[in-house]
Structures are given as C-alpha cells and as structure tokens.
Design goal:
By secondary structure, this protein is an alpha/beta fold. It has helices at about 15-25, 65-70, 105-115, 120-140, 155-160, 175-180, 185-190, 210-215, 230-240, 280-290, 300, 335-345, 390-405, 425-430, 445-450, 475-490; strands at about 5-10, 30, 45, 50-55, 60, 80-85, 85-90, 100, 220-225, 245, 250-255, 260-265, 270, 275-280, 310-315, 325-330, 355, 370-380, 415-420, 460-465. It has three domains: about 5-35 and about 245-305 and about 445-490, 3-Layer(bba) Sandwich (FAD/NAD(P)-binding domain); about 45-105 and about 220-225 and about 310-435, Polyamine Oxidase, Chain A, domain 2 (Alpha-Beta Complex), CATH 3.90.660; about 120-215. A seven-stranded mixed β-sheet has the order 8-7-16-17-18-15-19. Strands 10-2-1-14-20 form a five-stranded parallel β-sheet, with helices on one face. α1 (about 15-25) links the parallel β1 and β2. The longest helix is centred in the first third of the chain and has 23 residues, at about 120-140. The model has no long low-confidence stretch (mean pLDDT about 95). Keywords: Carotenoid biosynthesis, Oxidoreductase.
Length: about 500
C-alpha cells in the first residue's frame, strides 16, 4: 500500500505540530513556509547585542509540547526543558499598588489580601469557578472539534452539555468579575484575561474566565533557551520523523479537482498530496490560495469581527530593574476607556495598559551585562487603514511617560536600540489578516461555535490548523488544533 502524502501550508507552531502528528501516523509530510525560518508569530531576532522572542512570550500547559515527543517515542526531557515560574506576573497600578501573582494559590490569595484588602475567600472562590468552567468546556471546546457529530456522542460531552448554564455565557466577563470582587483592582486583573485571545472583557462572555485556571492551576513556565526553543525543538523532532521543511517557498494556490484539494502550486510547480492542511490564516487561505473559487468561501465566517492586534517596542535598555520580573503589567487607570478606544474608536487610548516581558531575567545572555531586553506591548485594534505612523509615535511617548513615572526613571534615556512591530508588519510577516493575533474575536456568547472548523465543509481533503480556526489562538490552543486535525484525518 503506497504511503499517503500530506502537505502543510505554513510552519507556524500548529503547522509543525500537525506535521509531527501526521508523520507519527505514517504520512510523508512536506511543510511549505514563505519565510526563511519556521515559527510564524513565534519567532526570534537579534538587535545589536540583544536577543528578543518576537511573538508569544507566555508559556503555559507545556504538556501539549511534551505530548508530541511522547507520541514519537522520545523522552521530552532529552530535547526540550523548561522551569516553572514562582511569580507568574507582577502587576503595577497607577495608585502605587504592586501585586505579585504567585503561582501557589495560597500565597497568591494572601498577597491579594495584603495588598488590596480583598478577602482570601474571594480569590479562592473565583479560581474554583474558573476550574469548574474548564471541567465543562475542556473536552467539548478545546480537545475536540465542535463540527463533528462524533464529538457529541461522547459521554463526557453530553455531561458538559447538561452543565452548559454553568459556563456563564450569558453575561460578560466584566460583569461576572465585578460580582466576585469588591476591589476594582482585582476585577481589572481578571478582566485582562480577555486579551489572551484578543477580545474585549466588556462584551466577551464570562466563559472566558476559564483562562485564569489554565495559568494558575497548570502554571506558567520559561523554556530553556527562550520561547523560540519551542519551535526549534519541535522542528528537530519533525525532521527526525522524516518531515521536510521548504523555506522561502510560499504556496501560491491550492489546486482543486471537482471540489477536492489535490495539489498546491509552489514557484509555479504543482505538488500533489492526499491531504492538505493550511496553517495560514483562514482568511488568506481563501482569498489568496482559493481566489479562483469564491463560490466555495464561507462568507459569513470570513466577515466576522477580527481579534485585536498588538503594537510592540523591542528596546535594549541600559539598566537592570530589580523590581521587574519576567512578566509585568502596568495597568491603565481607565480600563473601559482603553477598550472603547480599541473596539469602538479603532485607535489607541492615551493611557494604555503596558505588558513588559524581559526574557533576560531568566536568560541573562539575551542582554549585555547590566542591561535588559524589553518587549513592551500594548493591545491595539486590527488594521483597518488607520494612520499607524501617527498612532505609533503618540503611543511610544505615552508608554515611555507611563513607565518612567511608575518606575521613577527616565526610560527614554536608557533606550540603546529599538525595533517596532505593528499590525501592518504582523499582517505582512505572518499572513494574519488585518494583523489580528487570534483570527476572529470572542466578543459574543456564541463565538466559540462560530470559528472556522478544522476541516473545510465544501472542499474535500482540505483541513485547517492554527490560531484563526477552532479552538483559537495562543500556543496551547494552536497545539490542540493540530491534535484535532490529525484525529479528524485519521
């Protein structure tokens, strides 16, 4: 019996994981990537004497990476290692409050009580609710396709359906969080988790309050070698299984034959396969690679509201700050105004919440001695034609002013080098429509059911993985999309 062949479009984290899973199942796999390197948004670069992880900087649920090595019959620790963070994040508020989010639940609850006066019981009750939502949604929303009858024939799925009212989909994250906490600082802290999938806590369903459980219960980690080591380790694993990566090889077209995906066109050459999996943003998959077949487009899905994007400044800083950690958040004083600007006005609020990642805290050689590599990010709207040059200039000054005020130091005078990533460059470098980081937003109670499926309903042998399709964006969900695709293909 001839070996079946699979082609993967895009070497993002989900494309790499899909390649591994299909290779384990006996497929001959080729991955075509338009860039000169794998990883998609999860990339790295060097700037003078500083190294930066360019994209995702939070690593949770490492078991999904380990699982890929185990599937291949290898010991994960021989290839990929990581350490758990004692402090997941450090939060800075405009009123001077500094809150350390300890990984240990008891320690975190005590810290919250000491710094804000919020009852320990409130924190524990909130995390218990988050865990409950996870227990209901995990098998239905995360690990299986919502678009297969087989999913709903599992007993654990039926149990989850009966418990559906408990996932709190009828009210917003913000309204739910307000009822859990008396202190507005805690409400703001947990509202922030909407940004983990590019959504708005004032409109997104409280079901998204599942996210804190993933971070608090399963922990946050730092990979040895930095975030990009996730990519490089998995690429080595894939290559050891016979997967072939073709870089600087953008796919030009998916070739159909009687509504069945039969081949891809790369540099004018047709390459046939039994299965084609697109890790490219689903919008671009249709509009670039299937533009000859608009009658097959899922038009309603492609018109859905996109997730938010990001504006990132990569700064080489000529100082070390003892009060900062790997992950740091500097909150806006008016969170609702910030989200109104992002979602209604489609611009950037004058006082944005700033996320600051400093990998040199755990990997000292990412910066010269006495220096730090700052990944300073704010949430911004997707690209719909704004004057980004003007917005970036104003935002840069507002970010520097904010950090300088809270840290008591003139940050501008410490910047040795700078690079910028904005929605336009995110779109051009990673084929993410409008520069949105997570495909469509989750700003409605039915959003989880409305994401594009992991298989085309109109084109046979065409599958999808990555952050623009089910179950969503972020490293863990992208890895789960690969699992769903490989199970479906099998």
């Amino acid at each position: 019996m001839p070996v079946k062949k699979a082609l993967i479009i895009g070497a993002g984290i989900a494309g790499i994981a899909t390649a591994i899973r299909l290779a384990v199942k006996g497929y001959r796999v080729d991955v075509f990537e338009g860039n000169s390197h794998p990883g998609g948004k999860l990339s790295e670069f060097e700037q003078e004497d500083f190294r930066f992880d360019a994209g995702p900087s939070l690593f949770t649920m490492p078991q999904y990476v380990d699982e890929l090595f185990i599937l291949a019959g290898k010991n994960p620790a021989d290839f990929f290692n990581y350490q758990q963070l004692d402090v997941v994040c450090r939060y800075f508020y405009e009123d001077g409050t500094i809150l350390s989010a300890y990984a240990d639940e008891e320690q975190f609850a005590a810290e919250v009580n000491q710094q804000t006066g919020e009852a320990v019981s409130s924190v524990k009750e909130y995390l218990k609710n988050s865990a409950n939502i996870y227990s209901i949604t995990n098998h239905v929303f995360l690990e299986r396709s919502l678009h297969r009858l087989k999913t709903y024939l599992h007993w654990d799925t039926l149990r989850s359906v009966f418990r559906f009212p408990q996932i709190d989909a009828s009210r917003t994250m913000h309204k739910a969080n307000q009822l859990f906490f008396k202190d507005k600082r805690l409400t703001q802290l947990y509202d922030r988790y909407a940004t983990y999938n590019g959504s708005n806590p004032y409109t997104a369903p409280a079901t998204l309050n599942v996210i804190p459980h993933l971070e608090q219960h399963y922990g946050a980690y730092f990979p040895e070698g930095g975030m990009y080591n996730i990519v490089s380790s998995l690429v080595k694993l894939a290559e050891s299984l016979g997967v072939v990566f073709h870089y600087n090889s953008p796919v030009e077209e998916i070739v159909l034959e009687k509504q069945s995906a039969k081949a891809v066109k790369v540099k004018g050459e047709l390459i046939s396969a039994d299965v084609i999996v697109s890790n490219m943003d689903v919008w671009f998959t249709y509009h670039r690679l299937l533009k000859q077949h608009p009658h097959l487009f899922p038009k309603k899905i492609l018109r859905q509201e996109r997730s938010s994007s990001a504006l990132i400044f990569y700064w080489g800083i000529n100082k070390q700050f003892a009060q900062l950690n790997l992950h740091n958040i500097f909150f806006s004083n008016d969170y609702q105004a910030e989200f109104d600007h992002i979602w209604q006005q489609k611009n950037i609020y004058r006082d944005p919440t700033v996320y600051l990642n400093i990998s040199s805290k755990y990997k000292p050689d990412d910066a010269p001695k006495g220096c730090e590599n700052w990944f300073a990010m704010i949430n911004v709207p997707s690209n719909t034609g704004q004057n980004w040059d003007s917005l970036i200039s104003i935002a840069r000054q507002n970010i520097i002013t904010k950090l300088s005020r809270i840290l008591g130091e003139d940050i501008n005078g410490l910047i040795l080098s700078e690079s910028i990533l904005d929605p336009r460059s995110i779109e051009s470098r990673t084929a993410s429509y409008q520069g949105s980081l997570y495909g469509t937003s989750s700003n409605s109670q039915f959003a989880a059911f409305l994401r594009h499926a992991n298989r085309s309903s109109s084109i046979k042998n065409l599958y999808f993985c990555g952050g623009s399709v089910h179950p969503g964006g972020g490293i863990p969900l992208c890895l789960l999309s690969a699992k769903i695709v490989s199970d479906w293909i099998a």
